[in-house]
Amino acid sequence: MSLQRCQTEWGEIDQEYQQLQETHKVYRQKLDELTNLQATCSSAISKQRKGLKDLRHSLRKLYLNLVLGNVNVTLLSNQAKFAYKDEYEKFKLCMTIILMFAAITCLFLFNYRVTDEIFNFLLVWYYCTLTIRESILMSNGSRIKGWWVSHHYVSTFLSGVMLTWPEGSMYQMFRSQFLAFSIYQSFVQFLQYYYQSGCLYRLRALGERNQLDLTVEGFQSWMWRGLTFLLPFLFFGHFWQLYNALTLFRLAGHKDCKEWQVFMLALTFLVLFLGNFLTTLKVVRQKVQENPEKVQKQE
Ligand code: COA
């Protein structure tokens, strides 16, 4: 290769290198722009998240203000929080007993539309009240899972639809099954009360250490015994909800079925089954993960 050719090639390579440097400069500039844009986007997303969280908080307060008026729902001391929770559990127990008697009366004594309506109205009122009390509990730091609160909104809706379902052959075909389910649900709620109020008292004792000589281990062992006893009843109730959904879907396909309530109730029972079943599984999984050695000991 002649010297002149080498010089020409060197010139070309040098020129390409200059171009490459320019391109690299542009690349660095764009990379800086991209990094800046990424940082701006990340901070905008965090700002949006915070905004949404604040909005959710305000909406919850707005809902409480709407229902309760302008009252202060912040419970300051731990004692006040325990007392409110205790009262909430007792309210549930008291209503459970009333609802169980009401359902037994409707199922075995009076087959009248008016008594059924009173029962369903009582259910609507009860679930509405629960959602309000649970919102207050949540604004005071309770760890209630979102689904249990939503579950009470869905149950309010379900009881409302039951209330509007007109008398007829379709209604009568589902009536006994619904009332029997309500009795069973009250029975499970009764067991739940003993478990939840037991947890509450033991947690309080753990916090104060003056009522019982209780250790964290002791609490965990009591909780697992209670939960193992309760879970089969809960799961049976969930599958009964699924059975209600299937019965209603079948009724909705019946040639004489004209009421929209049948299909709507079927969907609502299905939602309740899925939500309750999956959330209960999640709760149990979380507890097992938090404390696997204890479960093995229990087994
Ligand atoms: N309704 C209202 N509050 C509930 C609740 C429920 N179903 N489940 C749990 N909580 C509350 C607890 O009291 C606790 O409150 P706190 O933070 O104020 O002390 C908080 O949520 C956290 O409880 P967690 O530890 O997650 O559960 P747990 O051990 O108290 O209860 C179960 C676990 C599974 C027994 C309970 O969630 C339950 O009963 N679920 C099934 C409900 C159901 O399916 N009902 C329909 C039956 S047909």
Strand content: under 5%
What are the secondary-structure elements, in order, as H or E? Answer: HHHHHHHH
Helix content: over 70%
Number of helices: 8
Globally, the shape reads elongated
Instruction: Measure the end-to-end span.
Output: 86 Å
Q: Give the class from helix and strand content and strand pairing.
A: mainly alpha
Number of E-state strands: 0
- List segments where confidence is low: pLDDT < 50 over at least 5 consecutive residues: 294-299
What is the total domain count? 1
Instruction: Kindly provide the radius of gyration, computed on alpha-carbon positions and rounded to a whole number of angstroms.
Output: 31 Å
Q: What integer is the average pLDDT?
A: 87
Descriptors:
mainly alpha, binds coenzyme A, 87% helix, 8 helices, single chain, 299 residues, elongated
Description:
The chain has one domain (78-298). It contains 8 helices and no strands. It is mostly helical and 299 residues long. Coenzyme A binds at residues 85, 137, 142-144, 148, 185, 188, 192, 195-196, 199, 227, 230, 234, 237, 276, 280, 283.
Write the layout of secondary structure elements.
Elements: H1 3-68, H2 78-109, H3 113-139, H4 146-164, H5 169-208, H6 216-252, H7 260-290, H8 292-298
Bound molecules: coenzyme A.
Can I get a quick summary?
With 299 residues, the protein is mainly α. It contains 8 helices and no strands.
